[in-house]
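To the wet lab folks,

You asked to see what we're planning to order before we commit. Fair enough. Below is the target structure as tokens, and below that is the sequence we designed to fit it. If anything looks off to you, flag it before the synthesis order goes out.
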């Protein structure tokens, strides 16, 4: 493909990604993979170049752009050479018209600007869209960080997590023996810190209420050295079912999964009432802390959806509180940097609950109300809000 044809391909792909974002269709990555499946003429270099252009355009557009062409013309404003490729030659985009609209550059959609937690200062928000590093968590059920480092000499120890390794960009970790044998798992450093902050250990009963496909479950099981009971529940059957092969690869044997019926979560968890030493609520959220990985989710969030998420988070906190034994802990986390989902949610819970805020064992992050915020700008991790409470004895 010529450079101009790559630009035209990126425009067409962006149009499909925009349509998918407007109709709750597939994620950008899925759209890109499907698109290339039917265009065998595109070689690996073409694919890489087109993908890179598409993601640059997505990252640059805080608001959903009017069209793929407007999005790429926005990128071309910062790179005049790209603009010269809009020349109308075969397979190239049409020449740029007089006064033709370009997508404005912004980190966040306008309506979200005032909703960030105050510790996420506007001057640092560009970091929310930087490229995320490839972080690994060492699975202590399979070996130590030194052993994993010896198996992956390209790695460097993560700056914050004592069980983390950071890989060079583009490293194909899933082809490595260390990954195949379960010695390492791909996990953002922030998620690792959050799992460690739960202080799970052998002999405890732990509930991972919103376990999804088990990212934090695996980390909790390792901290528990596979001993005693770890209940991993979720309302999404598909996600829960993806956990089993991960557990097996990691050598995890103490996990019991439970499918929850949304709104009736208490029914499936009745036997655990006041029985858990630790309950983690890694709640569904806006994902504003993970824009580095999924920048196009900025276009999918609406005020309505955010309000529904805030209501669901409050409900899950109430469900979780009932499972904590006297003296036990509840940990709440969201990969969000929005105040409503973080410090305000925590404050409202503290006001209505008998559980008492309890400081987190976490050296990283910045205090945000009763919790802490990890952010791409300050900590180089995905963005999270985390808070902890203890049930009175
Ligand atoms: C942030 S994700 C969890 C990620 C997971 N803990 C991990 O580390 O990979 C939030 C999860 O909450 C689940 N969820 C949504 N509604 C729920 C409900 N009513 N009860 C339990 N889980 C729910 C979603 O299916 C999703 O898997």
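Sequence we intend to order:
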């Amino acid at each position: 493909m010529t450079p101009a044809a790559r630009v035209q391909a990126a425009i067409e792909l962006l149009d499909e990604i925009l349509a998918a974002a407007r109709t709750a269709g597939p994620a950008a990555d899925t759209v890109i993979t499907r698109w290339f499946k039917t265009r065998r003429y595109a070689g690996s270099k073409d694919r890489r170049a087109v993908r890179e252009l598409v993601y640059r355009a997505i990252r640059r557009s805080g608001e959903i752009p009017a069209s793929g062409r407007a999005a790429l013309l926005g990128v071309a404003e910062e790179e005049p050479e790209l603009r010269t490729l809009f020349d109308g030659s075969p397979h190239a985009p049409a020449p740029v018209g007089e006064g033709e609209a370009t997508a404005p550059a912004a980190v966040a959609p306008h309506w979200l600007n005032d909703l960030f937690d105050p510790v996420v200062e506007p001057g640092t928000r560009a970091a929310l869209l930087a490229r995320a590093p490839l972080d690994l968590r060492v699975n202590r059920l399979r070996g130590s960080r030194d052993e994993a480092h010896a198996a992956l000499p390209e790695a460097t120890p993560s700056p914050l997590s004592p069980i983390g390794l950071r890989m060079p960009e583009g490293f194909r970790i899933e082809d490595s023996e260390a990954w195949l044998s379960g010695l390492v798992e791909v996990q953002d450093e922030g998620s690792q810190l959050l799992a460690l902050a739960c202080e799970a250990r052998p002999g405890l009963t732990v509930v991972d209420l919103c376990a999804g496909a088990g990212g934090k479950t695996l980390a909790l099981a390792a901290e528990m050295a596979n001993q005693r009971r770890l209940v991993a529940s979720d309302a999404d059957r598909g996600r829960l079912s993806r956990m089993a092969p991960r557990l097996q690869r990691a050598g995890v044997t103490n996990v019991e999964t439970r499918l929850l019926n949304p709104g009736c979560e208490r029914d499936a968890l009745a036997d655990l009432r006041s029985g858990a030493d630790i309950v983690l609520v890694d709640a569904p959220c806006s994902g504003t802390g993970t824009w580095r990985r999924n920048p196009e989710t900025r276009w999918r969030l609406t005020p309505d959806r955010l309000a529904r998420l805030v209501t669901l988070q409050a409900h899950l906190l109430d469900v979780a509180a009932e499972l904590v034994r006297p003296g036990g802990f509840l940990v709440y986390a969201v990969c969000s940097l929005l105040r409503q989902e973080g410090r305000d949610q925590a404050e409202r819970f503290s006001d209505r609950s008998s559980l008492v805020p309890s400081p987190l064992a976490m050296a990283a992050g910045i205090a945000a109300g009763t919790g802490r915020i990890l952010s791409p700008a300050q900590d180089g991790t995905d963005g999270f809000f985390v808070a902890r409470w203890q049930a009175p004895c």
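Structural context that might help your review: The domain at 189-390 is CATH 3.40.50.150 (Rossmann fold). DSSP finds 14 helices and 13 strands in the chain.

Thanks,
Computational group
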